[in-house]
């Protein structure tokens, strides 16, 4: 499948909401992927939403790829799938410290015993 029989968009495609500085400057897309999104993104969006009907075999295959992402063959299809995941999926957020629930906090008390006061007795013995 090539991009030759895939219609370019009527206008350049930009996603200023999620990629304010551009696709390539986001660090997620290469310059070639950015070019594909800008040139064909308008058509891909319209095909995906059903605003326009597919006219070529590439456009029919593109719609099949959207339904089942495992069969992406062309660079155009792979780039659009990548865009969908980055723009629409929830972003993963990792934190260094988390909040413990009450059940986790109470189970952590088992690390301490009543013998923890032994160190205090040693300090008292040295003073007297």
Please specify the SSE layout and strand pairing.
Layout: H1 31-49, H2 57-67, H3 75-88, H4 102-107, H5 118-127
Structure write-up:
This protein is mainly α. The chain has a domain at 30-88. Helices cover 47% and strands 0% of the residues. It contains five helices and no strands. It has helices spanning 31-49, 57-67, 75-88, 102-107, 118-127. α1 crosses α3 (75-88). The longest helix has 19 residues, at 31-49. The termini are far apart. The model has no long low-confidence stretch (mean pLDDT 76). Residues 105-128 have a biased composition (Acidic residues). This is Macrodomain Ori protein. Belongs to the MaoP family.
Gist of the model:
The chain is an all-alpha fold.
């Amino acid at each position: 499948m090539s991009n030759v029989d895939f219609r370019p968009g009527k206008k350049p495609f930009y996603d200023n909401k999620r990629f304010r500085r551009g696709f390539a400057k986001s660090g997620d897309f290469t310059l070639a992927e950015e070019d594909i999104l800008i040139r064909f993104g308008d058509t891909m969006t319209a095909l995906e939403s059903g605003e326009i009907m597919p006219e070529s075999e590439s456009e029919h295959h593109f719609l099949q790829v959207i339904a089942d992402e495992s069969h992406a063959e062309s660079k155009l299809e792979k780039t659009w799938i990548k865009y969908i995941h980055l723009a629409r999926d929830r972003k993963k957020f990792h934190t260094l410290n988390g909040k413990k629930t009450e059940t986790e906090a109470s189970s952590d008390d088992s690390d301490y015993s009543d013998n923890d006061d032994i160190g205090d007795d040693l300090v008292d013995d040295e003073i007297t």
